[in-house]
C-alpha cells in the first residue's frame, strides 16, 4: 500500500486491476478504489512515456529498422521499374504483392502523421514497413540482378522483415498502456528483448550470407528464403503471441485504451484471420503445406485472392482503429447514422459542429466575464440538451456562486479541491464510484441542486476561476462522453478568455430597463419600478467618464450619456451590443471617418476608448435629441426645413470633397444641439466614394434611390437622394417608404401648399431619372440658399 500511495502521488500510471488482486484486506481495497476514482478525473502532471516510448536503445533500433525498410522498399521499386522499362516481365503474383506493398505503405503514412501525438505508433509503423519490404522482395523475385545492380544488392542482402516480430512485440508491450504492478509485463519485456536479440542475429546472419558468399545450408532453418519455411512458421507464432498479449493486457487497461484494443481486435479478426489460419495449418498439417508448395497457380488462385484481399485491408483498418480516438467526430456520426438515415444525420452532426464553433467564438468575444458566463450557459443548455446550466464564478469571499440562483460552492469543500485538480468535466451520473467517494455534504449539495455535470474553468495561471454546472430532469438520459467532450470544448474557450478580476471598472454596471439610468448595483435609485438589467458599460470608464443613462439602442450600437470628469462636459458613448469582428471593424471605421472630417454640421469625435476588448466611441452629445424626435411631434416649418437642408448639404459637401460617402442619412442620424443647430452623425456605413458597389445594398432601404437596387456603383448622388427624402419627411411628415420612386401627387401637393419653390427643389432632388437630379452637393446647396422662405 505504501508503494501504491507513492505511485499515486507521483502520478505514475498504475494497473489498478492488478493492484486490487494483490490487496486482500477490505479496508485496503476500499482505499485503492478511492485512489482509482481520483486518478481517473485528475489532470496528468505531464505526458507519460512508457517502456520504449522515450529515446533509448530500442527507439534507436526501431528508427534504424524503419530507415533500412524504406531503403529496401525504394530499391525494390526501382529494380522492378527498371526491369519493366527494359522489356522484362514480372511473375504472375507480382501484382498481388504490389497491392500489399501499397496498403502497408498507406498505413505507414497514416501512422507517421500521428507519431508525435502517441510515440507507441512508431512501433506499429516499423512493423508495417518491415512487412512491406518482404512483399517488395517477393515482387522482385526472378528479376536479373544486372538490370540495376545497386538496387539489386540492397534487395537481396537486406532482410528487414526478420525484425517484424520484434517490432510487433514492442508495440504489444506498450499498447495498451499498463505498466505498474503486473508480473505479466515483466515477462513480456524479457520476451521482447529476446525477440530483438533473435531478430538482429538473424538479420546479421542473412546479411553475411548474402554479402560474403557463405554456404547457406547450415543456416537453412533461420533463413527466410529457404524451402523449409521454418523461419516463417516461427514468424507467425511470434506475431500471434504479440497480438494475444495485446488482448490479454486490454482487460487491465483504462477504458479509452480498451476501446482501441477492441477496435484493433475487430480489424484483425476480419482481415488477418485467413493469413493466420493458413500459417497455423501449414505448421500443424504437413499435408496441407505440401499441397500448397506443389499446387499450380490456377489451383490455389482462390486462396491467394482471399489472403491478399484480407491482408491488404488489415493494415489500413488496424491503423484507423489505433489512431481514431475522437468520439464526437467519428463515433458520434456512426452511432447516429446507425439509428437514422446517413445523409440526414451527417448533416445534423455538421450543423452541430458549426454551432459549436459559433458558440466558442461568441464565448471568446464576450466583452466581460458576466456576458461570457451568460453565453456559456446558453451554449451548454442548447448543446447538451440540459434542463439548466449555470456558471458559478469566484466571488470576493473566495466562494463560487451564481447570483441568479444563489447556488454557492464553498472553497473548503472536497468537491472544490477535486475540481481544482482536474481540467476535464465530471459527469457524476455515470461516475458512481467518484460520487460515493465525495463527503456527504458534497453529495447533498449535488442532489439538492440536481447537478449531473460539473466542468472547471481554470485560468491561465492554473487557478480555479469558475465552474459550469448542468443537469437534466430525466435520470434516464445521463450525460455521455460526447456531452463531456462538448462541455470541455466550451469551458476551455471560456477559460482562455476569462478575466477574473474584481475591480469595479472591470465589472459592467446595471441599468434600469425603463429609463436607462445606470448604477453600480442592481438597485438603482431612479424612481422607476422596473427591474435592473446588465449594462453594456461600467458605471465609471477609464477613470474619466461617469456613465449616466442609456439614451439609444439598436442592432448596430448602444449609446449612453456620460459625464467627462476631466473636462466637465456631457458626451455620448457609443458601444456595441454584441462583440463581433464585423461590428468592431465598422465602429473603428466610423471613428476614423469622423476624425478625418471637420465641419460645423458634422458631429465631433472626442476619442476612442476600449473596455474589456470592446471599442467605445466618445462623440458629441446632442441635448436636443434627433430630427426623428422632432418630426414625431409634427412637421417642421419651411424655415426650419430650409435651414436643415442647407446645414446637411454643406456637411455632405465637406464629406464628398474628401471622397467620403455617408450612405445612411436619415432623421435618427441627425442630431440637434442645444441651440437648435443640426449636425450629421453616425458614420458607421461611411466609405470612400466609388468603392461601394450598390449590388450590396447598404443603409436604410427607405432612404436609398431606385438605382441602388439595380446594380452599379454608388457616388454622392446616393446621399443627395437621402437628403431629399429627409427634407420631404420633415416638411410633410410623410412616410419615407412612399418616396421610393419620387414624389407622389398627394405629397407634391402638400409640398406646394407649404412652399411652392421648396417643392420644386425637392421634386428635382427626387426625380426618377438620375440625370435630372442634383449631381453635386454644391448644386443642391445653391438651390436651397436661393429660396425665399416666409417666417
Structural class: alpha+beta
**Weakly predicted, low-confidence segments:** 45-55, 326-341
Quote the beta fraction.
Answer: 5-15%
Major pleated sheet = 6 strands, antiparallel
Oligomerization state of this entry?
A: single chain
Number of strands: 19
Shape: elongated
Could you report the average pLDDT, rounded to the nearest whole number? 78
Number of helices: 28
Strand order of the largest sheet: 3-2-1-6-5-4
Helical residue percent band: 40-55%
| Rg (C-alpha, Å) | 39 Å
Whole-Å distance between the termini? 102 Å
Write up what this structure looks like.
- This protein has 791 residues and is α+β, with helices and mostly antiparallel strands.
- Helices cover 52% and strands 11% of the residues.
- The strands form 5 sheets. Strands 3-2-1-6-5-4 form a 6-stranded antiparallel β-sheet, with helices on both faces. A 6-stranded antiparallel β-sheet has the order 10-11-12-13-15-14, covered by helices on one side.
- A hairpin with a 5-residue loop joins strand 17 and strand 18.
- Helix 8 runs antiparallel to helix 9, helix 8 packs parallel to helix 10 and helix 26 crosses helix 27.
- The longest helix has 30 residues.
- About 3% of the residues have low confidence.
What labels would you give this structure?
11% strand, 791 residues, 6-stranded antiparallel β-sheet, alpha+beta, 19 strands
Task: Please give the structural blueprint.
Layout: H1 2-9, H2 16-22, H3 26-41, H4 57-85, H5 94-112, H6 121-139, H7 149-157, H8 164-174, H9 183-212, H10 230-250, H11 255-271, H12 273-284, H13 286-294, H14 301-323, H15 327-339, H16 342-365, H17 369-384, E1 388-394, E2 400-402, E3 407-409, H18 414-420, E4 426-427, H19 432-437, H20 440-448, E5 453-458, E6 464-471, H21 481-497, E7 510-512, E8 518-519, E9 532-534, E10 540-541, E11 545-553, E12 558-564, E13 569-575, H22 581-596, E14 605-611, E15 614-620, H23 627-632, H24 638-657, E16 660-661, E17 670-672, E18 678-680, E19 687-688, H25 716-732, H26 745-754, H27 756-765, H28 777-785
Antiparallel strand pairs: 1-2, 1-6, 2-3, 4-5, 5-6, 7-8, 7-9, 10-11, 11-12, 12-13, 13-15, 14-15, 16-19, 17-18
